[in-house]
Amino acid sequence: MKKFFILAAGVAVALSSCNGGGGSLKSEQDSVAYAVGLQCGDFIKSVDSTMNLNVVMGAVKDVINNKQKMDNEAAMAFMREYFMVRKPARAKVASEEFLAKVEKENPNVKKTESGLLYEIIKNGSDLKAVSDSDEVKVIYEGRLKEGKVFDSSKERGDTVQFALNRVIKGWSEGMKLVGKGGTIKLWIPAELAYGAQGAGNVIGPNEALVFEVELVDVIPADSAKAE
Q1: Last residue within a domain, chosen from 49, 69, 89
Q2: pTM score above 0.85
Q3: Same domain, 148 and 201
Q4: Pick from 28, 45, 69: which residue ends a domain?
Q5: Which pLDDT score, from 0 to 100, does residue 17 have?
Q6: Which of 134, 98, 163 has its CA nearest to residue 222?
Q7: Does the residue 129 lie in any domain?
Q8: Is 198 helix (H, G, I), strand (E, B) or coil?
């Protein structure tokens, strides 16, 4: 249902801006078709960008010609299993392989008992966070294992302050490994990040994450409470 409303909105925008076709689209029907294609493309990309588009188009034609090889109920059941079981399982294996490769190929990378990988890029002072109630001020950049940036206070020019008991486990642990003024790189296993559920449309299930963090300041819990 939600997808329908998004699609309807996309069609409305396309029609309101096409003025008799608009751009390279020659007709209102072409604009509607292109808007539908955009929405389908976004969905396909979010599922698997390597999907066989010939099979997708074959399914579209089958629906139009009432020759479906799979009924809607069976299709929904398969998609539920795909998103809840198959895709998370593949992502878990891929993340584990990624972390194993990082550990093997980078002699400066260390590993904690929890499985967190880290490298001290720049040594900081002796002032470190020691409790999850401590607060830190940081400049950071987060990437998916493929290298895509999904969040960056560095890019925004922001310094962010938060308590270590309000972030993912990998951050809570990692920020205690470097001193004020230092920079650390973290490779965080999914179980220390967002786990099997992922986070929104950006971080998928069982995704390992990579962060580079500059620790600008440490505010001990007592001081933070006083402020």
Answers
A1: 69
A2: no
A3: yes
A4: 69
A5: 42
A6: 134
A7: yes
A8: coil
CA-based angle 175:180:182, to the nearest 5? 80
Please list, in sequence order, all residues whose beta carbon lies within 8 angstroms of the beta carbon of residue 141, skipping any fewer than 6 positions away: 149, 151, 152, 153, 154, 155, 211, 212
What are the structure tokens assigned to 73, written together?
């109920």
Higher pLDDT, 25 or 174: 174
Do both 199 and 124 map to the same domain? yes
Query: Which residue do the tokens 């650390």 mark?
Result: 184
Q: How many domains does the structure of the chain reveal?
A: 2
Q: For residue 4, what pLDDT is reported?
A: 39
199: helix, coil or strand?
A: strand
Please give the Cα distance from 181 to 50 (Å, whole number). Answer: 42
Give the ranges where 48-167 is alpha helix by DSSP (H): 53-64, 72-81, 87-105, 153-156
* Dihedral sign (CA 172, 174, 175, 176): positive
| Residue 95 is assigned to a structural domain of this protein | no
Q: Are 49 and 70 in contact (CB under 8 A)?
A: no
Q: Tell whether 108 is covered by a domain.
A: yes
The residue segments making up the domain with residue 170 are 102-226
Give every CB contact of residue 133 below 8 A, 6+ residues apart in sequence.
Answer: 163, 164, 165, 221, 224
